[in-house]
Amino acid sequence: MKVAQALLVLASVFAASMIAQEPGTHVPSVAFAPVGRVQVKPGGTANVQLDFRVGPDFHVNSNHPHSELLIPTQLKLTAVQPVSVPTLKYPAGEDVSFPFAPDEKLSVYSGDFSINAVVKVPLNAKAGDYPVTGELHFQACDRRACYPPRTTPVKFTVSVASK
Prior knowledge:
Blueprint: H1 2-19, E1 30-32, E2 38-40, E3 45-54, E4 59-61, E5 74-79, E6 84-89, E7 94-98, E8 101-109, E9 112-120, E10 128-138, E11 140-141, E12 150-160
């Protein structure tokens, strides 16, 4: 089973490299929807819904794919002190079969999906605006092949209110 999965992944990567070189090929993408300013009081937390859209005709592996051979979708965020992002909550993936592996279900995101980020501000935080930046790392696939991994930038601002 693991050998079959490894061969499937290698074949997909090889096919992707060949397809990606064809002129006029549709490029897989995941778009990030802008987030409004996030207001947090000192000592408080906020849940920030980060919305993403997978391009038409594509899917990306979920954050917990069923095989360790598949590249998970991962969000990495960096906050300017004193703001922190201690928790990310990913949605469950949808189990789907594809023509290239009809007997296996893959855990994927397609269309719109959201990741919830918990933003935390310590009690002694000074009022002001603090940027949170990062990127979503993913590998997009269509019904024929998987493409080289890509990233989508993510950015929002946390406004700490005065005490």
